[in-house]
Amino acid sequence: MKANPVKPHIHVACAIIEHDGRTLAAQRSETMKMPLKWEFPGGKLESGETPEACLVREVREELAIGINVGRALPVATHAYEAFTVTLYPFVCTPEDGTVTLIEHRAVAWLKPEQMLVLDWAEADLPIIAGYLATRSLGAGEGTQP
Ligand SMILES: Nc1nc2c([nH]c(=O)n2[C@H]2C[C@H](O)[C@@H](COP(=O)(O)OP(=O)(O)OP(=O)(O)O)O2)c(=O)[nH]1
């Protein structure tokens, strides 16, 4: 009998893109792994690539926009059944282009209070909690007085 293969561990940069007090979420398509789950745009780090460079490349490939990569949020690791993912989140702003769905099924620009309503990829939940906490401390662009 074959030994169990080692569970893959992937490293993924993800962009929390803010504009006008809203944050962009992207819905995975029916044909992707984790179909219809919501996530932040981004993808796997290539060999030797910084997370920031990865994000600029991936967001251009996925949504046809340029972004400015800003502050890093805490890195989070999550073990799915089939693989483990470490997410490297950065707060970003759009730079140029028009959001175009190249891989995703949909995007939504969410107010902070709408974010947790969506069905997110599980690994994103601690990222969103941390992001919302820093926004409510006034670190984000938000609508706080
Ligand atoms: N981009 C992104 N991926 C995420 C998030 N949360 C999360 O669990 N993931 C997972 C989904 C994917 O399995 C993986 C990212 O891989 P990817 O974007 O390069 O590739 P993919 O989904 O097409 O998967 P693959 O077939 O190439 O393995 O990380 C997130 O917020 N953003």
Overview of the molecule:
With 145 residues, the protein is of the alpha+beta class. It is built from two helices and eight strands. Strands 1, 2, 3, 4, 5, 6, 7 and 8 form an eight-stranded mixed sheet that branches. Strand 6 (76-79) and strand 7 (84-97) form a beta hairpin. The chain is globular. The termini are far apart. Residues 139-145 have low confidence and may be disordered. The chain binds 8-OXO-2'-deoxyguanosine-5'-triphosphate. Residues 10, 12, 14, 32-34, 39-40, 42-44, 85, 87, 121, 123-124 line the site of 8-OXO-2'-deoxyguanosine-5'-triphosphate.
Q: How large, in whole angstroms, is the Cα Rg?
A: 15 Å
In total, the number of domains comes to 1
Q: Give the CATH architecture.
A: Alpha-Beta Complex
Q: Report the CATH C-level class.
A: Alpha Beta
- Assembly classification: single chain
> What is the H level of CATH, i.e. the homologous superfamily?
Nucleoside Triphosphate Pyrophosphohydrolase
Q: List low-confidence stretches.
A: 139-145
Task: List the ions, cofactors and other small molecules found in this model.
Answer: 8-OXO-2'-deoxyguanosine-5'-triphosphate
Q: In angstroms, what separates the terminal alpha carbons?
A: 63 Å
Helicity range of the residues?
A: 10-25%
Shape: globular
| CATH fold-level label | Nucleoside Triphosphate Pyrophosphohydrolase
Please outline the major beta sheet: 8 strands, mixed
Q: Per DSSP, what share of the residues sits in E-state strands of 2 or more residues? A: 35-45%
Which class best fits the helix and strand makeup?
alpha+beta
Order of helices and strands: EEEEHEEEEH
